[in-house]
Design brief:
Elements lengths: L13 H22 L4 H28 L5 H25 L3 H23 L1 H12 L1
Length: about 140
């Protein structure tokens, strides 16, 4: 499955949209490595890149929600913590079970599903908040 950033997912904040595009790129690269049954080192390296990107992105996003005094800020932060906790569990499984093909697919599926769902539920609200801030200015 290829992931894509659709027009419905565009927030209007250039930094966030660029970071979302990078997330999709990294996710698709990870997915391709899984499909190609790449080495554990290649897959783990791509997962690490994705986790680093997620943490940076979450910090930027939370800063925007806080700056805008968004009523969605706490829900967004909780969702971010939830994903990072889930990633920790998946990483522990990698060390306990090894990086099986099934676990590789589960990681891609979890990250992809979370990304699409989260952007459509929370991040898209940035568009409305930025628009409202612009109108008020």
């Amino acid at each position: 499955m290829q992931y894509e950033l659709t027009s419905a997912m565009i927030t209007g904040d250039s930094q966030i949209d660029t970071e979302h595009a990078e997330w999709v790129k990294l996710l698709n690269e990870l997915n391709q490595l899984v499909l190609d049954k790449a080495s554990d080192d290649e897959v783990i390296d791509k997962i690490s890149q994705l986790i680093d990107h997620m943490q940076l992105h979450f910090a930027h996003e939370e800063e925007i929600f806080d700056r805008l005094n968004s009523p969605f800020a706490e829900g967004d932060k909780a969702a971010h913590r939830g994903l990072l906790d889930r990633v920790d569990v998946l990483c522990e499984r990698v060390f306990d079970e090894g990086l099986t093909q099934e676990l590789r697919q589960e990681i891609v599926s979890n990250l992809g599903h979370w990304f699409v769902t989260h952007v459509c539920k929370f991040d898209i609200k940035i568009r409305d908040a930025v628009r409202d801030e612009t109108i008020a200015a």
